[in-house]
Amino acid sequence: MKLYVGNLPWSIDDKSLKDLFSSYGDIEEAVLIKDKFSGRSKGFGFITFTDDDAGEKAIKEMHEKDVDGRPLTVSEARPMVPRDNAPRERDHEEPSEAPMADPSAINQSAEEDNSEEIETAEEAKEDASSDEPATEEATEAEEATEAEEATEAEIEKEVEETVEAEEEKAEEEAEEEEEAKEKKEAKSE
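^ that's the sequence the OP posted. Answer follows.
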């Protein structure tokens, strides 16, 4: 029976992992999982017992047992499932599901798109030196243009409001004239 052992202290190595579980029965294999670059423990490992009863006993007694200040997680190991749920081993004769890009076509289209290509570092420096930085005058001109646009918008708004006010006033005057006319006709009858 293969067991998963998690939340292991960083001080545990392969030998001490095997020693930790050896009192429960014959151990076929004890593996501490390590980072492939640093070689440091990832904090979990696997113990394989030759006898299933020994594995069950180890789970019951070692799960949540405190080792160097850390409660262990001990359970029966489950088969590893790849993150993308695809088989880990691929038959290399099968074509890939994704189409392969043609690098020469990509490079050719990139060259066609780049009509103004700078070929050397010297040309790049010359091109960069010909770029002129923004001057204070250019910045002031941009600000003046923005201010003019804002002023025009404000003037348009004021004109619209004035026209609306004049229309309302004209309507009110027309209503007053109509009322006065009706009163005059009412008196004459």
